[in-house]
Amino acid sequence: MNAGRLAIALVVLSALSWLTHRYVWARLVRDAGWPEPWPRALTVAVFTLGALVPLAFVAVQALPRAVNAPLAWVVYTWLGFALYLFLLTAMADGARVVAAVAGTWPSDPERRRVLARVVAGGVAAAAGLIGAGGVVNVARGFEVRRVRIPLARLPRASSGYSIVQLTDIHVGPTIGRGFVENVVSETNALAPDLVVITGDLVDGTVERLRELVEPLRGLRARDGVYFVTGNHEYYSGADAWIAHLRAMGIVVLRNERVSIGDAFDLAGVDDASAHRMLAGHGQDVAKALAGRDPSRAVVLLAHQPKAVKDASRADVDLQLSGHVHGGQLVPFNWIARLDQPFISGLHRVAQTWVYVSSGTGYWGPPMRVGSRAELTRIELVSSDVDV
User: Which backbone phi and psi does 318 adopt, to 5 degrees?
Assistant: First the structure.
């Protein structure tokens, strides 16, 4: 991220952090009128954590991971709790407005204070339970999800072909080498014919993270390991990462296609946002499929699900994507639908199947609420059968 974008992001983040934390403080601390020493202690805690948000953003960009990782764990975890404090507080405010309009909100100041404390305590307890559940969900790790997908043009001799899809690992401040080693071990245990990584592998530069991703050299698949960029590679130095992954023996597909023996063609495209961030980059499904034999099945790797619009027009058999993390934290599973056609799972657009993984890691808060991380084993079969 260049200095200009970094400065703008820091200003915006600082403003949002201040406004959000002040709103939560005003409703849950000030308006509740807690007896001393709670107001002072809670005020210090809320605004200290709010100030740490932009500080952590700078630390992650400027300091070695050994230094920034502890701060990132504290701040990113707090951000998850703060999200639910904010959302539940806003919902409580909405309910209060409705009660006031209906004439049921108490007029007596003492009753209002008691009710404010009840609401504040309820909001804090609910946010704590939701956040704690999200942390436990992440601590459980990823599940191995098995999906069977029929491809009409897949040769019968290739029926049963297995692909393991990894996506959205987000190696960085809170996801490290141990997690990557576990991913590699679990992937190899599935003995796949092919491994694909559909973007957002990293959150940081090659210089910072090379040792953390080193275990990926150990991935084993009969027909190799393939990668396409996600949007976070472009925040982290895409050209350097592409070169580094290729040096590790991973094949990076950039709007191009390869033949996987007699089974099918494998195509891969740059992330849909790449053209805005780096010259010479950008999603181009037509280029990736130019000159293909229409009698052969084609599997397309595209980080963002919305690439299916072009894929279905190009008669792609199957698209594998990630990006959305299954929403990761409710209500983002609903909000993401404003930008993406699918959030997770297997879907069909015209004659094109699209599988959207919920992601193998997570981004930001080490929490998952309403979603589960996955490592996906995809079995391709050669005729229309129940999936």
Answer: -150, 135
